[in-house]
Design goal:
Helix content is 5%, strand content 62%. By secondary structure, it is mostly beta strands. It has a 36-stranded antiparallel beta sheet that branches. A hairpin with a 4-residue loop joins strand 31 and strand 32. It is rod-shaped, with a radius of gyration of 39 Å.
Amino acid sequence: MITSNFKLKPLINLLITDKIKCFAWLFIFIFFLFFIPPNIYSQERRQIELVQAESMKFDRSIGENVRRLINDVIFKHDETKMLCDSAYLFTVENKLHAFSNIHIIVSDSVDIFGDKLYYNGNTRIAELHGNVKMIDNQMTLTTDHLFYNLDTDVANYIDGGKIVDAENTLTSVLGFYFSELKDAHFKDNVVLVNPEYTMYSDTLKYNTLSEIAYFYGPTRIISDDNLIFCKNGWYDTKNDLAQFQKDAYLTNGEQYLSGDSLFYDRNVGYGKAMKNVFMKDSVQNVIITGEFGEHFEEKGVSEVTIRPVLTVIEEADSLFLHADTLRYVVDDKKDTKILYAYYKAKFYRKDLQGLSDSIVYNFSDSIIYMYHEPILWTGPHQLTANHIQVKTGDEEIESLHLFEAAFIITEDNKQEEHYNQVKGRKIDGIFRNNEIYRIDVFGNGETIYYVREEDGSLTGINVALSNTMSIYIEDNAVARVTWREKPEADLFPPEQLPHDNRFLNQFILHTTRRPNSKYDIFIWE
């Protein structure tokens, strides 16, 4: 046990006036409780041995059997040597107070320096003050106040300290260093400085051999390229590998990635997120969520799988898209951002819905490209083709283009199976106020549409063929048709056109596949 002569009273008074240091005192108590062998005080200790001194006096003003030693003083206790300019040796208590140019030679690899030393030979605990420096073959520890247990080879400080190794500099208010294990434990205002980044943490464990840092509590890692935050994890500072957990996220200012668990390899710029993955591009107002994500920094590629969802945030209506895989590519050189959604891609927005085997969205020109049996719905219109392009802008649809086997079906009267139909090799749709108002057909144009009076009564059914034509839409109904090349058109009274002849070849309704809400994007038939 450390006695009152160990000069802890000033230290205790100092701790009481500072909340952090009060916690530190508790920290030290726990340290002694757990790290000092339980039978240490019952063991018979060897006396501190005086090896040399230029002069020696007895100073009864301090106590009986107290020796005052001056100049080139050397003590030895077990295998430890202690050097200083002057000292008081308490032979009965088996302790010493040493001053100026303190040098403790703990072993071949551990040396401790300081201005003042209080050493108890029974507990083998050394307390050093002033310009304290501890050096081993892995690191250098500096502080103004250090405790070192020569039995357990554990050092700790409570008033701030710094550890420097080959790659990193660590500072904190409280710290423990386990010399044999090369483990350092830090608490309060922990800062790790590496040439590539700076780490700020509440609690951190660091091994100077492996150069791996384990952090517990809010931690930020800041570099020129990005910011990483988490509340639990580890960072291999030698190999630039890391695992982050608990509210973990990574951001470069424009892009943001989070998940229950993040893995990051700084060497190749590779990041991996697992469970509750959340990615956001604040410039494009795009969010991607899922259960597994990967980020390839050098390629500018982010990929999310397992129930991935893309959300394009817009003031009026956001767009929600799901596919087996979502890939987001950022090319800074070309200043482009492209989303690839492939295998069973399906999206929903109130005014626009669609699906296809794969979808590509180019944020630079705001064009949606749909490949492999695409289907698009807008209002009462169903559009199909081999390939579809949709041009958007200012949160509105500007135009769409259907290539090869283009087909548009528009409900006229669903209950009576009346459908306006347009078919051609290529079809362009022009929008106004987010509603289609003109359809241009190029090549092998065919149309069937229901002609109605202003009161809605059915006048007849127009069946027409023309290589090119333009169809004008008002209130989602055909207002007029302009044929540009030798049309063949007939207007049939409803009773004269059989039901089977009211449908163009390859007419297929896909009503059951149409998403009616953002939740339907996960349903694929």
